[in-house]
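Exercise: predict the fold of this chain.
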Amino acid sequence: MVKHLYIVDASVAVKWYVPEIYSEAAKRLQNPDYQLQVPKFFLLEFGNVVCKKLRRRDITLELSELMITDVQKVSLHWHPDEPLFPKAFQIANETYRSLYDCLYLSLALAIDGQMVTADLKFYDSLKTGPYANRLLWVEEIPE
């Protein structure tokens, strides 16, 4: 039985592969009782983060290739971006946040889930507003 619907953004998923701050918290999402959801855009954003880490030499080419291949095998439920776009656009203009980040939040609203992020700037800007109940800081994932 699925207990929670979590929308995972790329800032969290990268931590499944790269040991860095909040990695242990992010790995708690790999609980089989959690249903992980992502917009189709997720793969593009995840790949972009992996490319940046590779260019900065934070990870090896081998690890980057493994990450790109493996994340596509993770049990994620993928949602088309197009139906999420109007609400994401509205949220982005309302909150002055990135349209990319708001796409995840739009999905959380659409499926009655919670967006999990490790993007502190995004989280801090919305944690007390009208979308706070749809937002979860990575360390707040139940154990």
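Check your answer against the key: Residues 38 and 78 are 5 Å apart (CA to CA).
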